[in-house]
Write a structure and sequence with these properties.
Elements (H helix, E strand, L loop, with lengths): L2 H16 L11 H11 L4 H14 L3 H5 L3 H7 L6 H17 L7 H4 L7 H12 L8 H10 L9 H10 L9 H14 L18 H4 L16 E12 L2 E6 L10 E2 L2 E5 L25 E8 L2 E14 L17 E5 L17 E5 L3 H4 L3 H16 L4
Parallel strand pairs: 1-6
Antiparallel strand pairs: 1-2, 1-4, 2-3, 2-8, 5-6, 6-7
Helix pairs in contact: 1-11, 2-3, 2-8, 8-11, 9-11
Length: 389
Amino acid sequence: MNELVLTIEGILKWFYSFGIDYPFRNNRNPYRVWVSETLLQQTRLDAAVGKIENFLNRFPSLEKLANADESEVLYAFKGLGYYNRARNLHKGARFMLNTYSGVPESYGELLEVPSIGPYTAAAISSICFKRKILSIDGNIRRVFARIMRMDNTSPAFDAKLRSLVESVYGDLEYHPGDLNESLMQFGQMVCKAKKPLCTACPVSSFCLALSMNMVKQYPALAQNAEKFTVNWKILIIVFENQILLNKYQNFQFLKQQTGFPSMLELENKELFSSKSKIVSRIFKQSKENVFLKAATHSITKYKITFHYQIIGLSRSKKSRKLEGHSQSLNNGMLMMDLEGNPVDPEMFIIDEPDLFFEKIENVSGVLISSGLSKVWNHALNSISARGGT
């Protein structure tokens, strides 16, 4: 029998004995598989399991997701990575509901759906509809790069791997979905990127990289992309147990999200789209303020350091009642920093229509960005210690 067939069968037998029955995969519902596979992209599985279940509980059907507001989808996506995936997931749900009245079975039709690429389309096709299509992710690439000593840096790697594996499907009497899931879990649990368990590997006798003591050389590592430094300055303005927030439309990193008044400082402004905003008008860039470093965060090619300053507002005797948006903040307001020192109100321009106040206890619930959540948790200790403003 073909060694490749024996290898795959060995991995399948391992899977049936030791594979993990993840809650989001034990129901071969195409909607659940689509959502879970999309949420798992670029997210560690161990960190995502509970969040995937929470997402599916909140949106248990394609109809529920398609008919939800985007802001609700973004908030449910919190902690699962890049929010463009959440937006595409939402678009995909609406597209499938309007075009197919459900999740389509065809691999080709699946590829037409926003948020679905070759990997996810193959996963849905094989797991839910028994299509014999290899679903190639990083785990599967690593397993076969080592076992067959394949050059994973070649542009033709995926096509060659798919052709090789699918050519022996006729000799494998297993559910195609089991085949894909077994290979993925085998890569996660045994043939790991770091510290692979070669001594416990059930197919080690077929591994060419192991036979030549070259496991560490496979797969070849891609060169790390350069990361660009961004300093993200934030104003946390407190007024009578409320925090000033900004509902952004097109701010870099915060498109259609709520955040604090912010200013981005970067080495090269050309890195961002000219359409993307990088400073709230609340800042006057000609003035220098003292900001505390709060946290670091990485988003794709950017290494972000957050800095924040807490400003407390008090109503003066002459000021009129502050209501709604904050255009009148500078009129009759006493501004102080965290130490109680007066702050010149002319250092800030507070006239954006998207500025609003939110109660301190509600702020965590409106922040979607995990980076801003880190900053808020850090700043909240200081605000609580001084008893608000």
